[in-house]
Amino acid sequence: MIKQENTYLGANGLAYCKICGEPVEAFFPPDSILGMKKHFRQCACVRKKRESEEKAQKEREHCELVERNKKICFEEPRMYDWNFELAENTTVIEKAKEYAANWNDMKKNHIGFLLWGPIGTGKSYIAGCIANALLNQEITVKMTNFNTIIDDMFPLEDKKEYINALARYELLILDDLGTERNSEYALGIVFSVIDRRYRSGRSLIVTTNLPIKQLKEETNIEKKRIYDRILEMCVPLYVGGSRYRSNIAHEKMGKMKTFFATAESSQTENIIEQTGTKTICCLYLSIDIRNRKGVIALQKPTYYLWRTDYTSSEDFEADKEKYTKIGFRVVTFADGQPDKNIHNGIKALIRNHIKEINQ
Ligand SMILES: [Zn+2]
After folding, report:
1. How far is the CA of 4 from the centre of ligand 1 (A)?
2. How far does residue 37's CA lie from ligand 1's centre (Å)?
3. CA of 32 to the centre of ligand 1 (A)
4. CA–centroid distance, residue 18 to ligand 1 (Å)
5. Average pLDDT of the chain to the nearest whole number
6. 79 within some domain
7. Same domain, yes or no, for 125 and 30?
8. What residues are neighbours of ligand 1 (ion), with CB under 5 Å?
9. Distance between Cα 47 and ligand 1 center (Å)
């Protein structure tokens, strides 16, 4: 409603909005029983305000729905942020983007992906990116793995209902096929889930470290019927780290070796300036050289946190959250001897990286 001080009286006897110039009143039709009486009408300002409120409300509802569905989709909150914007632009990422962008066609034709390749090449990350892109389109997705499924189902009386529930998601992502237990019981569940999905006619994405050859040539009958179904539903897509590892890694390895050979001099930041090793992806190399445990090729800028740097676990968790929110993958070291030189070197690299981002 427009306040009276924001209106003026027009020559025709109607009040007009001073801002948009439209009348805020209108006469009833002359032949109506109300005669020359007036009624309120919405001027452009009011309409605009209402539209933007409605838009904001819709946006809020959309965000709430997406957040809710993300919680259902993923088992770990860090996966909520896996998105294409943060991914290195490879051929596979391009295909994954296309998949998400053309979801209606993919869905109609029941097309899925089999993302296969060595450990640590970002297969789960790519699947997570697809999941998030679709979740943002308000599509229901579930990303899980057979170890979780088998554990979840173990105590259930009604195993069928659990399997049916998995079949109801518009997209199901089964991460890390082949790492589940090899028992007859486990294989039975794997088959039931995949077969149910197959019969639902809905799309499936599978990630696995198993080579495609092994899937195609499997002789064990239990496994063969699982793999046959998957190969029928999913387009195989090789996710290799070879380009990344061989080309970029080789190129930078020399620089990093120089870096560590001279890091003792504690002029870490100067050395980085000289060698130009300013990108965070170098961190993976630096880690690899010294054989830090459990670190693999990274698809995403990574921040390394040493727990021993923090006096309280609250501070540690706060920092961890901060870097996760920025978009880093955070790797934490809770134990072991923090190597002083690597430690400082990495910190310096990150400082430079952040400086670059801020420039
Ligand atoms: Zn107005």
Report:
1. 12
2. 21
3. 27
4. 6
5. 79
6. yes
7. no
8. 17, 19-20, 43, 45
9. 8
Distance 13 CA to ligand 1 centre (A): 17
Report which DSSP code applies to 211. -
Domain end call among 238, 267, 290: 238
Of 1-5, 176-180, 208-212, 339-343, which range is least confident?
Answer: 339-343
Interval between CA 226 and ligand 1 midpoint (Å): 65
Say which CATH number the domain at 227 has. 3.40.50.300
Taking the centre of ligand 1 as the mean of its atom positions, its distance from the CA of residue 61, in whole angstroms, is: 28
What's the 42 CA to ligand 1 centre distance in angstroms?
8
The reply to whether 83 and 219 lie within a common domain is yes
The answer on 128 and 175 residing in a single domain is yes
Same domain, 221 and 345: no
Residue closest to 306 by CA, chosen among 319, 295, 294: 319
Residue 57 CA to ligand 1 center (angstroms) comes to 22
Under 8 Å between Cβ of 38 and 28: yes
**Do residues 220 and 330 both lie within one domain?**
no
Q: What are the tens digits of pLDDT across the range 223-269?
A: 999 999 999 999 999 998 644 333 444 444 444 444 443 333 333 33
Same domain, 230 and 309: no
Specify the long-range contacts of residues 64-72, CB closer than 8 Å, at least 24 apart.
Answer: 65/138, 66/135, 66/136, 66/138, 69/135, 69/138, 69/140, 69/141, 70/132, 70/135, 72/140, 72/142
Of the residues 218, 238, 258, the one at which a domain ends: 238
Report CA(329)–ligand 1 centroid distance (Å): 50
Task: Tell whether 96 and 223 lie within a shared domain.
Answer: yes
CA of 39 to the centre of ligand 1 (A): 16
Q: How many domains does the chain have?
A: 3
What does the pLDDT look like over 21-50, one tens digit per residue?
Answer: 999 999 888 777 766 688 999 999 999 999
Q: Kindly give the distance from the C-alpha atom of residue 9 to the centroid of ligand 1, in angstroms, as a whole number.
A: 13
Residues with Cβ within 8 Å of 120's Cβ and at least 6 positions away in sequence, in order, are 241, 296, 297
Burial classification of residue 176, based on how many CB atoms lie within 10 Å of its CB (0-12 exposed, 13-18 middle, 19 or more buried): buried
Full residue range of the structural domain in which residue 27 is found: 4-47
- In tens, the pLDDT along 82-125 reads 999 888 788 899 999 999 999 999 999 899 999 999 888 889 99
**Two tokens at 315?**
């501070």
pTM of the model: 0.63
Asked whether residue 196 falls in the same domain as residue 127, the answer is yes
CA–centroid distance, residue 19 to ligand 1 (Å): 5
